[in-house]
């Protein structure tokens, strides 16, 4: 599949309703210069890692794989595929976990450089400090969860590379 490569809330445009209110429907995904062929779990993991706080991401991860399997199975059958579905929930979750680990550790660098590029409230430093606090906590939760994966169900990765 084609992968966006930089999927986060800043690259999503939302639909507008009849009263000019923002809806929860995506109108467009922009900024496609990092497109590549790969697994869609890369984009999904990046989106939830960068755009959700730790508790929200953890809650989403309990439902997202069933939801994804349901939707991809409908599309698979809609296209009259006679073959058995080549994806399993376990394989999708494993692909997500690999991508999540990558994004969990890269979020540290993203946060380190974010203040230099984004400061919508220069006259209100307390707001910026609060935003950074949220980002730091989100990064901490992501790194803790990546560590749990690497110490648990993905321990073979550490052993494979003698880490």
From TrEMBL:
Membrane-spanning ranges: 95-117
The entry's keywords: Membrane, Transmembrane, Transmembrane helix
UniProt keyword Transmembrane present: yes
Taxonomy, superkingdom: Eukaryota
SUPFAM superfamilies in alphabetical order: Protein kinase-like (PK-like)
UniProt-listed InterPro entries: Dhs-27, Kinase-like_dom_sf, Oxido-Kinase-like_Enzymes
Protein name: Aminoglycoside phosphotransferase domain-containing protein
Organism: Panagrolaimus davidi
Lineage, uppermost ranks: Eukaryota, Metazoa, Ecdysozoa, Nematoda, Chromadorea
